[in-house]
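Blackboard transcription, Thursday session:
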Amino acid sequence: MSKFDDVFKQSLIGRLLQSDRAGTWLLGALLALAVLVPFFNLVIPADSFLHLPTYLVVLMGKYLCYALLALALDLIWGYCGILSLGHGAFFALGGYAMGMHLMRQIGDRGVYGNAELPDFMVFLNWTELPWYWYGFDNFFFAMFMVALVPAALAFVFGWLAFRSRVTGVYLSIITQAMTYALLLAFFRNDMGFGGNNGLTDFKDILGFSLQSDGTRNVLFVLSALSVAGAYVLCRAIVSSKYGRVLVAIRDAESRTRFMGYRVEHFKLFVFVVSAMLAGIAGALYVPQVGIINPGEFSPVNSIEIVIWVAVGGRGTLFGAVIGAIVVNYAKTYFTGAFPEVWLFMLGALFVISTLYLPKGIVGVVNQYRERLAVKNSANKPQELSS
Amino acid sequence: MSAVPKPGYHFEEMQSMLYLNGVTKSFDGFKAINNLSLDIAPGELRAIIGPNGAGKSTMMDIITGKTRPDVGEVRFRDSIDLTRYDEAEIANLGIGRKFQKPTVIESLSLWDNLELALAGNRSVVKALFHKLSGEQRDRIAEVIELVGLAKRAQELAGNLSHGQKQWLEIGMLIMQEPELLLVDEPAAGMTDQETMETAALLKEINRDHTIVVVEHDMDFIKALDSKVTVLHEGSVLAEGRLEVVSANPRVIEVYLGR
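(Written on the board underneath:)
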């Protein structure tokens, strides 16, 4: 047992988690979910009260995709001060890449029974597949695009913005403009992405029906593992010297420049990594919810991501995960119970967390624990002084 | 405070460390710098004084690549034309700058601040896989000792007092191993005691580095005991030892006359 302990501590993950108790808990919880959720859904019979209904599996899978998206945003906002109000765009692009693959998988099972073209193209009287749909029949090509397309957009956008030293509010505004421009573009039928309706009516993935409980559980487990993997990746990035340069840029950008760091390169790298994570989140999201449409590019969606991270606790990584899950659970509950008040609540949540919880839920918990520690040490002065 | 050994530079081969000739920079018609010429010899410690708006900060901005001059020559080590480079490149050429307002990375420890400033490759990939060598550790420990903050190495820089931040920032400059240090008002907001300690620290650092220091505090300038340049309305008004300069009637007029 101690040998295993040693090996674990020497490994990269072991070293990263040594001083990261919250991260250890998070990874433990994700792995436990990846085992327990399929168990309670598939193994426990449906008539048992312990049975986990499938709709909850899908709902939790959705939350995990949001958690991954929140991690991506926290990496750039929490550690480098890049407040992207357009991160939903990268999520949606990853989702569209996955959606295109799922559309090709429908084959001749569409309403029009056309094996060559997706239904919406038949409806528009198109006769052949646009060139940018080529290759999406292939699963691996599509998965490659899931990361590559958001990365390419982030690279071009970031290169232009960071080189011109667009920072702060101005950067936030142009990211918002970026996602809005994409929203308008994807609404157009002649873009070839299904226009207003987006891509939907998916049948199966790699031959497995998307409606089956088995596939849904696999997608859930993949989502949990992706969040865990992304967490480890982000933790590795922020614990490296590179991560400290990011913090330096956040706290004192020109100081960092005068130290000789090319700030634009450091920002660009983390922005591209973050966009790829957001794209992967989108790709996991689409098969679970069964649709991707231009609404995902809506600026409001991107602002919501910022709220998740702010509520959970910015610049902590696990806070982003907690925030995404808590806020989305609240959203599910309140949009069901009192649909008309949800947007007001979301706004209030943002105002309250900015004013009273600048470090989010994680900050409150830490403060409480520190107070507890002070109290404990005050109770035992003799032991300390001896 | 102990001396920090550094690889010796061959000062004697060089005419001037920093050479400005006929530099002019205007903002919306206002000439912040007006036909400014300045020559800093290798190994020199030069104090630059002047009333507010004399163009001291603009001069620093031009040397460090933050601002480009309209006309004029800015040369480093005789041959390097600084107007062709940006901040990061100029920092890597060997010019370190301390800001007027102490600027340290507040949410990192003192140690991390110095580690980031440590001379070396500045690429993204190197930063991702960087590991401190024993030698680099020793160097950080040495510099943190030099600036008198060794006991607080693991504290966050944000917890330091104003004066201590100034020292940490000077320490960060030394970590960069620059040949030329530009120090903007290091004694601002310091107690008399701290001011004298800072002057001693700069003189100590001057043993291995060329230093240009901008300051208002006359006691500090006296303690530095160096050549002084007086700037006024963007150009040089007088230059020489402090006793000589302060006897100059035009300097007296500018400082006291109105």
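Lecturer's comment: Confidence is low (pLDDT under 50) at residues 1-8 of chain B.
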